[in-house]
Amino acid sequence: MQQELDSIIGTDRLVSLEDKPKLDYTMAVINIFPDPYKFDPTRFLDKNGHLKKIDEFIPFSVGKRQCLGEGLARMELFLFITNIFNQFKIDIIPTKPPSMIKQAGGTVAPEPFVCRIKKRY
């Protein structure tokens, strides 16, 4: 993802919504599904490396019950993730890897974890 961001965005500006159609691999990373416990963004890319639509991917539901805030949520998710990963390198600490165990509450959240964040430039 960082290679794609470097080649398309570079380091001199923030990512904008106009960049979204050019960031197929990055969008594939954001959409991880099916088999969500396996990191495989290529499941969302066609044989030419372009983002493909997967009808089963409906995190905001469909029809009458579709989330009205889907467009805003997708926009915020794209801008947040791309700008964080364009500016910072995030690594796990090998002796303390994050867990896939969920904590239930008002929302589902991961267990607390530690990571290393370093400015890329």
How would you describe what is shown here?
- With 121 residues, the protein is an alpha+beta fold.
- It has one domain.
- It has three helices and four strands; from the N terminus they run αααββββ.
- Strands 1-4 form a two-stranded antiparallel sheet. A two-stranded antiparallel ribbon has the order 2-3.
- β2 and β3 form a beta hairpin.
- It is globular and about 45 Å long.
- The two termini are 16 Å apart.
SSE string, helix = H, strand = E? HHHEEEE
Radius of gyration: 16 Å
Low-confidence stretches: none
Characterize the main sheet. 2 strands, antiparallel
Helix content: 25-40%
Mean pLDDT: 83
The structural domain count equals: 1
Distance between the termini: 16 Å
Overall morphology: globular
> What proportion strand?
5-15%
Per DSSP E runs of 2 or more residues, the count of β-strands stands at: 4
Task: Give the helix/strand class.
Answer: alpha+beta
The tally of helices reads: 3
Query: Going across the major beta sheet, what is the strand order?
Result: 1-4
Protein name: Cytochrome P450
GO biological process, one term: xenobiotic metabolic process
InterPro entries: Cyt_P450, Cyt_P450_CS, Cyt_P450_E_grp-I, Cyt_P450_sf, Cytochrome_P450_fam2
Keywords: Heme, Iron, Metal-binding, Monooxygenase, Oxidoreductase
